[in-house]
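Still learning. Any example?
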Amino acid sequence: MPSPQPPRAVLAMDPVHLPLLFPPPLMTRLSEVAGLDPALVVQDFTDPLAADALSKAEVLITGWGCPHLDIGVLTAAPRLRTVLHAAGSVRSLVGDAVWERGITVSSAVTGNALPVAEYTLAMILLCGKDAFDHRERFRVTHTYPPPAETAATGNLGRRVGIIGASRVGRRLLELLRPFDFTVLLHDPYVSPAEAGTLGAELVSLEDLLRHSDIVSLHAPDIPETYRMLDGDRLGLIRDGGVLINTSRGALVDPDALADELVSGRLRAVLDVTEPEPLPAASPLYRLPNVFLTPHIAGSLGNELERLGRIVVEELERVAAGVRLVHEVRYADLGRVA
């Protein structure tokens, strides 16, 4: 009995990401399991050079820089049955037409969650030691702080509030286990029993904000979470508390947050903002109580290979005719990133 033909696949993304997503060993695996032209990386689905490949494509391997998959793309790719996304959220990538046609969608979002959780853990530990404040003072005074200034410093028993048991939130909860933290969790889809298995106490959002020393945002950017941290809720965080945001800037009222930070009442670690990036005149760039990074918590550099590996493994499952591990379901889109 002849072996089945490998699925025809097309790469669609900004080519700059390709070498990091699929270094030579992974590109070899990719090419072995699918009929694929590694030199063809589509950025424009209307490009005549892509038309022939799209007309035969059964699998589309997408990444950052891939255009929106609308009805026009599907018309150009009548055989398409699977989309494998070598990045995180598919919300802005996949249009309704994809779901209506019954195309299977998979995402490497689980692989992207790990570096975000690692970044957040690092920031929690550094904030617990007041590392950023001490660095600023040390640059000016060149002297060590007296014991009276460090009496409230340290991570023993520090209360950490996690908003959202998302993939990132759950991975972070795992990473927090070895440390002597008291962990609070708010997530409307999690039961108290499940929160306990995750190593946290389930509380209301308001109680989490009132009782946490460090608050970390990991909820999805959906209509229900828009501006979930408004001025009133930010005001519940204790004086000197820390807000860490590696989710999306839209979850926080930017004006209310700026007011809290300019006043010096709160501290913040912000890898995402609204708008993104902030205007050059924003005071947040200059505040000593704000640690800003340019959206680096997610996969960067050699971390992209993890995403590529997930896609290769999913493509091998497609070729073998078995169920995908990282499938995105339409029914879940209302509550995931």
Remarks:
- Residues 169 and 267 are 21 Å apart (CA to CA).
- The radius of gyration is 23 Å.
